[in-house]
M48 family metallopeptidase (Aquamicrobium zhengzhouense), 457 residues
Amino acid sequence: MRAISAFSRASRQLLLAILSLAFILPAHAQRGISLVRDAEIEALVAEYARPILEAAGLSRSGIEIILVNDNSFNAFVAGRRIFINTGALLMAESPNEIIGVLAHEAGHIAGGHQQRLRDQLARAQTMAILSTILGAGAMVAGAQSGSDGLGRSGTGLLMGGSELARRTLLSYQRTEEATADRSAITYLERTGQSAKGMLKTFERLGRAMSLAGVRVDPYQISHPTPQERIATLETLARQSRHFERKDPPALQLRHDLMRAKIAAYTQGHTAAKRMFRDNPRSLPALYADAIATFTSGSARGAISKIDAIVKANPNNPYFHEMRGEILMKAGRPVEAAQAFARAKSLDKTRSGLIQIGYGQALLATGRPENVRKAVGELQAGLSRTKDFSAGYRYLAQAHAQLGNVGDAELATAEGHFYSGKYNDARLFAARAQQKLPKGSPSWLRAQDIINFKVPKR
C-alpha cells in the first residue's frame, strides 16, 4: 500500500510541476485573470504590433492582443493571443521597449513553440510515468522481499524520474525562449526598429532580481537569465544600423499618455504625479491629473480639467471619450452623448468601445428617439467588439425600454455567453426564442447559443 500511495503522490506532484512550468497562463488563471478594455490603449498597442506581425508572417493570422490588469512586467502567448500586462505598459518608458516584448511573443507564435511545448510536455510525462512505474515496481518488490534497500531504490527512481522530466522540460523551454529572442531581433531589423528597448527590458528584469536578493540556479528556471540574454543578443543588436534609432516624438507622446492613464487608474494621484514630477505641466501629467481626479470621486473637478485638455487638443478622440465618461459619472448624459459622438467622428480606428460608450450615453438620456438610436449604435459597436459583455447589458436595457422583450432576452443571453456563463446564456436564449419570430436571424442566433458546446480544454 505504501508503494501505491507513493506512486499517487509522485505522479500528482510531477504533473503539477510540469503544468506550472509549461504554461504561464494557468498560474494567472488560478487567481483569476482580470482583463482591461480601453480604446486608446488597444489602438496604440495594435499600432506597435502591426509591423512586427507583418515581419513575422502573422499579419493575416488573426492575432489578438489582450490587456491584463496586472502590475507585474509580463507578457505571454496562448493560442493566437498575445497577453500583455498593464504593468509592462506602465513600466516601459518608451514604445520601443513594448515593441521588443511584442516581437519576442510573436517569435513564439511564428515558431510554433506552443504546439512543440505540448509535444515536449507529453514526452516529459511519458518519461516520468515510466520511471514512476519502475520505481513503484521496485518498491513493491522490496516490500515482498523484505529488502529495505530495494524499497529505497524504488523511491529514488520515483523522485529521479520526476526531476529528470522536469529538468528536460526546463531545458527545452530555455531553448525556445532564446529562439524567440533571436526571432525578435530579426523582426525589429526587418521593420527598421532598434533592439535597444528589448535589451533595456532584460536589464530591468536583472536589476529587479538583484534588488530582491534572488539567487537563480540557471538549471531550475524556464527562461535564460537576463544577463545571459543580454550577453547573447547585445552584439547582434548593436550591429544593426537601426540600434540608435529613436521612437518618433508623436509616438512617444502617445506612449506617455497611455502610461499616464494606466498610472491614474491603477495607482492613483500620487503615482501619477511621481511619474511626471520632472514635467508637471506636460500633457501626460495634466491627463493623469484629470483622470485621477475623476477616479477619486470628484467628477466636477475632473470636468474642468478635461475641458482644458480638450480645448487645447480638439482633434484627439480619446480626450473626448474621457470627457464623455466623466460627464456620464456627473449625471449629464446629453453632454456625454455629444462628447462620445465627437470621439466617434475623430476615431480613425473605428473602435467598437467608443461606439458602445456613445450608445450607453444615448440610452441614459431616456429620450425615446435617443433610445432607438442607442440600439443601432450599440449593435454596431458590438459587431466589432463582440466579447465586450457589458455592451449587451446596455443593449438589453434599450430593447426593454422600447418593448422589444425578445431582443432584450437575446441581448442578455449574448452577454452571458461572452462572459462564459453558458448555462445562463442558454436559459435566456430559450426565453428569447419564445418571443421571437421562428426562423428569423435573431431566433437562429438564439438557437446557436442553445446548441453551443463548450470546447474541451
Remarks:
- The radius of gyration is 27 Å.
- The chain has two domains: 2-238, 249-451.
